[in-house]
Amino acid sequence: MISSLTRTALHALTCTMVCGCATHTTAVDAMMILPQSATTLEVGKNQLFIMAEAIDTPSPAFPQVDLSTMENLTVCARFIVTEDGSVKDVERIEESPGCNRVSDDNGEPFMLEVQNALQKWTYFSAAICEFDISEDECQGQQAKIRPLAIRLAYRFDFSMKNGRRRVSVSRGE
Question: What pLDDT shows up at residue 70?
Fold first, then answer.
């Protein structure tokens, strides 16, 4: 089932998005990032925001590039998790701290791999739950839940260390 945030966390949603951290697979780490232009969601007194929860997030492949000139590269992308939990409108982010410009020929293969991976990601969608008396009403089959599309952002760090390729994934917005 989708985990819920407390109402206090809802008002501080921006802060909670910056804090999450999880490990997906060997050599792939994840934590949130928050672009400077991120917006927050205001919820009513009798509403509870339920954050989107990842179901499947395959890592991007390390592109076939000339590794003799390989340096660390960070690619950032934002996308929308729709009401049905699919991903759409993937676009690169270059204006956020820690995000490299990837418009050159060397960076473009990395962005393409990020886009390909994100198109395969799936989620339990975010939602707003309406309750009359208590947030406890948001549990169970009688919950009044309205799916909600939200925008998320991730940072993908591609690096070479001791001849090994590494892709780290950081999440945000």
Answer: 64
